[in-house]
Amino acid sequence: MPKGSPELTKSRRSEIMEASIRLYDERIFKDITMKDIAESITFARSNIYNYFQTREEIFLGIFEQEYRKWNRDLEQIANEHIADKNLLADLLAKSLEKRKLMLKLLAVNLYDLEENCRIECLISFKKVYAVSRSHMLEIIKNCHPNLSDEQLLQKMLAVLAYLHGIYPYCYATEKQSAAMKSAGIEAKAQKIYDLAYAGLKELI
């Protein structure tokens, strides 16, 4: 356990995550090391392990933070009891447009990310993710009150699975773009809102 007040712990965890986010803006996940992160914080490098044991735990913490922010939007949408799927797709797409980092993390191999985290970190994340699932299920139920529980579950899972592919289609790397061009694949730039709206309108 880290020594110090809860405020200090929160502040240092936040500093570590913010430093990691800045690095993630510049390079891909696999190229970021604990050394890189430790060199980007203001306190002693060795202390980073008092808060996170692995790079994956840091990014899982960022992921959890992003889901908490998204949950606020989902809760508001769920509470509006909207039955129009076009309006729902619009509101959800707008909520995702604000969560670019969350969508980028969804494109990471979550098996590897979660495998290298302590179980307590993973449970903490899954609890926040469970709230997202619950809100999404309620949102879909408002639109389809006559569907069975199994049908609602399948719709909800289809929506959540779709989210994993949004970021890569909107933000191809230079190398990916060059390869697609050479392969004769038209790589038209996509916007998060447009891609999310088009898919959600069909899936909800």
What is shown here, in short?
The protein is mostly helical and 204 residues long. The protein is 70% helix and 0% strand. It folds into two domains: 1-52, Arc Repressor Mutant, subunit A (Orthogonal Bundle), CATH 1.10.10; 65-203, Tetracycline Repressor, domain 2 (Orthogonal Bundle), CATH 1.10.357.
Could you walk me through the main structural features you see in this protein, from its secondary elements to its overall organization?
- Helix content is 70%, strand content 0%.
- By secondary structure, the protein is an all-alpha fold.
- The chain folds into 2 domains: 1-52, Arc Repressor Mutant, subunit A, CATH 1.10.10; 65-203, Orthogonal Bundle (Tetracycline Repressor, domain 2).
- Helix 1 crosses helix 3 (55-79), helix 7 crosses helix 8 (149-163) and helix 8 packs antiparallel against helix 11 (192-203).
- The radius of gyration is 19 Å and the shape is globular.
- The mean pLDDT is 94.
This entry's quaternary arrangement is: single chain
> Considering the protein shown, what is the CATH homologous superfamily of the largest domain?
Tetracycline Repressor, domain 2
Distance between the termini: 44 Å
The CATH topology of the largest domain is given as Tetracycline Repressor, domain 2
N-to-C series of helices and strands: HHHHHHHHHHH
Derived from helix and strand composition plus strand pairing, the structural class reads: mainly alpha
User: What best-fitting shape do the alpha-carbon axes yield?
Assistant: globular
Helical residue percent band: over 70%
